[in-house]
Amino acid sequence: MCNYKTTIYMIIIDLLQQDWKKGFRAKGFYKSLSVKLLMGFMGLYFASIFLFLGLFLGDILDEASETLKPLEVFNGATLYILIGALTLRFFMQQLNTINLPAFQSLPVKRSTLVNFLLLKPAFSFANYMTLLIVIPFAVKSVIAYYSAAIAFRFVLNCILLIWFDMWMAAYLKRRFGSSLLMFPIIVLIVGGLAALEYFKLFSLFDVSRLIFNVLVFNPFGLLLTASAAGLAYLLNLWFFSRNYYPEKFNEKLKLNGSRVTGGFSFLDRFGVTGELISLQIRLMVRHKRTKSLLYMSALFLAYGLLFYTSPMYADQPGWLFFCAMFMTGILMLMYGQWIFSWESSYFDSILTKNIPVKTYMNANYYLLVSFNVISFVLTTPYFFFGTKIIYLHLAAFLFNTGVNIFLLMFFGTFNIKRVDLNARSSFNYQGTTYKSFLIVMPVMFLPMILVGVVSAFASINVALAVLAVLGLLGIIFREPLLKLCVNQFNKRKYLMAEGFRDKA
Fold this sequence. Notes:
Layout: H1 2-25, H2 33-64, H3 70-92, H4 101-104, H5 110-119, H6 131-145, H7 148-176, H8 182-198, H9 204-217, H10 221-242, H11 271-286, H12 288-300, H13 304-307, H14 317-328, H15 330-336, H16 347-352, H17 357-378, H18 387-411, H19 434-457, H20 460-476, H21 478-501
């Protein structure tokens, strides 16, 4: 029995080693080395931010509450963090896959492959980034108030909670990921908890503090946390025991039976949509015109230093929201106004491919959403300017994602001027028409005016809440809004193709 278990563990370790080598030996690894280096630098950037936050988190939490110690405040916020992380993982975490046919002729049990799929994300460094906050906080603050033993249990509890979140999100995604009702259900649950907390009908903070105080301060609390993580793992095993199909393991089939993602192999899991996104990304990084746009977007991220530090704009909520929306959606706004024109040189080819229009529009939508997420994350250092900036950026991000993306995609069909990607990048206005300004002007300035008007009669928080709700409604009703964009594209695609053929 012992030898059998040892063999299973060795096979899993071997599979993990093979997966690691696969990444380095892939054809496109060195071709996309610059992208990987950039991602590495971004990882170091965020790691340093997390580490810095961890060092001063104790002082921040100490000032946040006069009656509670920093660890108690942290425990009170843990359920919020868990629910938020679980929600993000459900929508953003991709399920692991393997090339099943490669193992079907080998003496590898299906249970071993299942365990490999479940254990694989546990070896990803990205899952442990939060420990860069937790460990310094434990060393500096928990030990100061309590003891090293409690600090150690606190860190171990955090690791087990990471595993619980990781496996529970994977189970929920495998079990309910295809259901269209999951998004509104999750929104209602999270929104309901927030409403109960806001109206002081129920305190999730107090419940969380009570639970995690027990888990941290009780020596046997680790057993409960480990049991929760183990239960999440077993739920995945149970799911696979009843849903063992090749499609649950295999990498998704690609358009025309071939991969076109090149160095962006992580997009393979998204099928045809991933291929189309990959084509757009490669277009961006390979041409002068689009690369200059990336550089300009990076420079504009510093825009907030002019607005947020100037007393001139302190009492002008409209301009502050303009700045927040501009920075959190800069790449989306600059790239999105020519969302279809960038592909003008091969637009006819796209129309002749066996690609559903909805899939094509979905790819553009997720591309712009990813731009928003990247811009929002890169502007998080502005949060140190105060809670007002946090509210501004959150409202702007939601509005950009739920409203502005659809406006850009809908009105982008009217921009039928060909864009020459190989033209010089500096002071290049080729492809720019009055329609380009008509597209971007309402997107940029109407929300700004709305914030200014609502703030004049109520407050800036009410104005931000209105725009945030509009953004959330746009996200919830993504499908019907996307359908409007698809219908608009179908109406104008031949006019667009005709305009793109004109090289004058």
